[in-house]
Amino acid sequence: MQLRYNFRLFPTAGQRVALGRAFGCARVVFNDGLRARQDAHTAGLPFISDGELSKRVITKAKKTPERSWLGDVSAVVLQQAVADLNKAYRNFFDSITGRRKGPKVAPPRFRSRKDNRQAIRFTKNARFSITPGGKLRLPKIGDVPVRWSRALPAEPSSVTVVEDAAGRYFASFVVEIAGQPLPPVEPEKGIDLGLSAFATLSNGRKIDSPRFLRRAEKKLKRLQRALSRKAKGSRNRVKARQQVARQHAKVADARREFHHRQSTKLIRDNQAIYVEDLAVKGLARTRLAKSVHDAGWAAFVGMLEYKARLYGRVFHRIDRWFPSSKLCSECGALAESMPLNVREWTCACGAVHDRDVNAAKNILAAGRAERLNACGGQVRPPHQVAQPVEAGSLRGAA
Question: How far is Cα 357 from Cα 395, in angstroms, rounded to an integer?
Fold first, then answer.
């Protein structure tokens, strides 16, 4: 399977200028290709093929005075920008024709130099390499210092250089690695994700919610207030915007670190993990939107899924309409309603339930049942051959 390994870059002043030039050239090529296809569509002309588009916005454009500076950057960077545009169009067409599952994909949009994220990609054809001194050698940019937090497990097939809103640079390597199965273990867990507790496990353990955004809210308010007072277009406004972006980056980094630690521990200690397929986008449109975004459930579940595949564990999502909170885990009785303010309830059978623990137990039971059925288990008792001594209706009886 393919994984990404991200490392922080520390380019020099000259290398930052060269990276900015590469970001700009890739952005211009992407926008030129998008404009060419939009103009052809407006004029009723056929869709411009990928090869013809590459010739028009790269090869021929370099020979014109208006785009001659495209030759100052690696040709692979420009080709990958066109490849990104082609992929965006394919995703859009597959979405509107129904070949792509999930939410509808919008058509490609023009890129802006004011976007929060600027990126360029180098493939093996670009001949990027890692020097013996541990620097990342990029064509027409130079040897960029890298802060290596761990060794790459294999030779990367491509590297994407990213500049985020906080002005930080990262190298994202794509590496093909084989599965690394862990020794089998007995425990299996159902996980109920929530807001009062980030996650409740079926064994009764609760993982507290760190609420990284809530904790940083006071400082963010002060920085946002200072940003609003700066004159538009001024250098001070740029500095204030970067301070806000850095604070948001700290929150995102802390949340990502928390997700990685908890997901790795759960995958290492359990043979199977079952979670509920939450409608995060729907919940993010309610009055709980800030808390839902602060929890980052989708990113956490995504980590559980890919780590389970990497380490040979079982991961399964149960249906989002499964009434995990209203179902008694002891007798199976279904309550008529269960408002969010009810954190503990008593079933008619006499069982007293903590709302989240009960939901986690039900998720575990439902996940095991769905997994058994998916693996060929019996959904219903098998058909039996009727015996001659059994009573039955006579032929021709009404």
Answer: 56
Q: Residue 122 class from Cβ within 10 Å (0-12 exposed, 13-18 middle, 19+ buried)?
A: buried
Structure tokens at 8: 């922080």
Can you tell me the distance from the alpha carbon of 6 to that of 251, in angstroms, rounded to the nearest whole number?
18
Q: What is the DSSP letter of 65?
A: T
Contact 347, 362 (CB under 8 A): no
User: Any catalytic annotation for residue 336?
Assistant: no
Query: What is the rounded radius of gyration, in angstroms, for the C-alpha atoms of the chain?
Result: 28
Q: Which of 84, 192, 294, 305 is catalytic?
A: 192
Q: What is the 3-state secondary structure (H, E, C) of 122-149?
A: EEHHHCCEECCCCCEEECCCEEECEECC
CA 250 vs CA 211, 247, 253, 254: distances in Å:
13, 5, 5, 6
356 is catalytic: yes
The catalytic position among 276, 330, 344, 354 is: 276
For residue 120, give the 3-state DSSP assignment.
strand
- CA atoms 107, 113, 114, 115: torsion sign: positive
- Residues 100 and 94: their CA atoms lie apart, in Å, by 5
Q: How far is CA 168 from the centre of its chain?
A: 20
pLDDT tens per residue, the chain (398 residues)?
899 999 999 999 999 999 999 999 999 999 999 999 999 999 999 999 999 999 999 999 999 999 999 999 999 999 999 999 999 999 999 999 999 988 899 999 999 998 989 999 999 989 999 999 999 999 999 999 999 999 999 999 999 999 999 999 999 999 999 888 999 999 999 999 999 899 999 999 999 999 999 999 999 999 999 999 999 999 999 999 999 999 999 999 999 999 999 999 999 999 999 999 888 888 888 888 999 999 999 999 999 999 999 999 999 999 888 888 888 988 888 888 888 888 888 888 888 899 999 999 999 999 988 877 655 554 444 444 444 444 444 444 44
Question: Which sign does the torsion angle of CA 74, 78, 79, 83 carry?
Answer: positive
pTM to 2 decimals? 0.86
Residue type at 270 in one-letter notation: N
Place of tokens 């602060």: 294
192 is an active site residue: yes
